[in-house]
Amino acid sequence: MTEQKQLWLAAPGKIILREVPVPMPGRGELLIKVRASLTCGTDLKAYLRGHNLIPMPGPFGHEFSGTVAAAGRGVKKFREGDAVMAVHTAPCLKCPYCEKGLYNLCERIMETKVLGAFGQYVLLPEHIAAINTFKKPEGLSFEEAAFLEPLSCVVHGVGRLGLNVPAENRDARKKRKGPDETALIFGAGPIGLLHLILLRARGVRVAVCALEGSRLRLSQQLGAEAVFKPERLEGFFSRFAPPGADYVIECTGRKEVWESAPRYARRGGRIMLFGGLKKGSPVVFSSSRIHYDELALVASFHFCPEDVRQAYKLLAERRVNVSSLISGTCSLPRAESAFKKLAAGRGIKYVIKDGMQ
Ligand SMILES: [Zn+2]
Ligand SMILES: [Zn+2]
């Protein structure tokens, strides 16, 4: 096969299906036949209003799993036919940030990323094939394996919260001494819900605040012990954690939520500002709470190879179950309907699949 079908974002609001050449893998590279890809909040933002990390017109889609269609010279870890899961970036290991171990902030990580998972094939460059590609365990579906990328982002964010529970305890809550750890998550889209799943797996008690009733119900199914619509959030203090939450996690990307998040943290609490705002948006916080109550404001961008390894382990060992975040499946030609549903607030993540499979 020399041609493949690939979805392109032609302009905001306009998705087209194009025929493009299937690339040939060079030295160290892997050509992957995509078996499942997932929609992501970044794709939705790009579809609705453009995104500076997704150039238009151009291919998009960056959460995927598949099988090795061809391996370039020098590839030892994988063979044709292997089922694999990967992320779409890897650090250069040479720049000043990589030298300091800040791999997620690598100067070249974004310019060497792979887009085009909403298509039949993706080509993984040598550094991604070597660092951030893994064999898919048999028991894990291709759809679940495609969660490696978003889960890696959330593993990185949770790492920056500095939880007081060890990562490796299978039942952290029982083994840990001391009071319960508590978190309040704003937003129950894919990223808010992945935080919920991961924090529950670590034994943290979680409350969720979101607008839509269906998302709050899903949050409860995933282990949230209290859920609130924004207008009822005052109830959080009396019902859930009287002094405020140990961790407040912003996953809405809304300025007013960024600004109100510190209000819900206990003294000494940590606030994770995960949801990105429009470039350059100013935000206002109460200085006295941050100063006298020693609140820590932390942000999270992307992930390091160690986060990807941890996310892989969590999925491979079935320590997190992500399948309830899948809202439906669309073929490539019908993928735009998934984005229309997401834009209307319907569903969490959609699987996009080559209709020929
Ligand atoms: Zn993503
Ligand atoms: Zn680098």
Task: Write up what this structure looks like.
By secondary structure, this protein is of the alpha/beta class. It has two domains: 177 residues, Medium-chain alcohol dehydrogenases, catalytic domain (Quinone Oxidoreductase, Chain A, domain 1, Alpha-Beta Complex), CATH 3.90.180.10; 146 residues, NAD(P)-binding Rossmann-like Domain (Rossmann fold). Helix content is 28%, strand content 25%. The chain has 13 helices and 16 strands. The strands form three sheets. Strands 3, 5, 6, 7, 8, 15 and 16 form a seven-stranded mixed β-sheet that branches. The protein has a six-stranded parallel β-sheet with strand order 11-10-9-12-13-14. Strands 2-1-4 form a three-stranded antiparallel β-sheet, with no helix packed on it. Helix 5 crosses helix 7 and helix 5 packs across helix 12. Bound molecules: zinc ion (2 copies).
Concise account of the structure shown:
By secondary structure, the protein is an alpha/beta fold.
Features:
357 residues, alpha/beta, Quinone Oxidoreductase, Chain A, domain 1, Rossmann fold, 2 domains, 7-stranded mixed beta sheet, 6-stranded parallel beta sheet, 13 helices, 28% helix, binds zinc ion
The biggest sheet amounts to:
7 strands, mixed
Give me the Rg, rounded: 20 Å
Principal-axes geometry comes out as globular
In this entry the ligands are:
zinc ion
CATH fold-type name of the largest domain: Quinone Oxidoreductase, Chain A, domain 1
DSSP strand count: 16
N/C terminus separation: 14 Å
Chain oligomer state: single chain
Low-confidence runs of at least 5 consecutive residues:
none
Order of helices and strands: EEEHEEEHEHEHHHEHEHEHEHEHEHEHE
CATH homologous superfamily heading of the largest domain: Medium-chain alcohol dehydrogenases, catalytic domain
CATH class of the largest domain: Alpha Beta
Please state roughly what percent of the residues sit in beta strands, choosing from under 5%, 5-15%, 15-25%, 25-35%, 35-45% or over 45%: 25-35%
Number of helical segments with 4 or more residues: 13
CATH architecture of the largest domain: Alpha-Beta Complex
Residue-averaged pLDDT: 93
Number of domains: 2
Roughly what percent helix? 25-40%
The helix/strand class is: alpha/beta
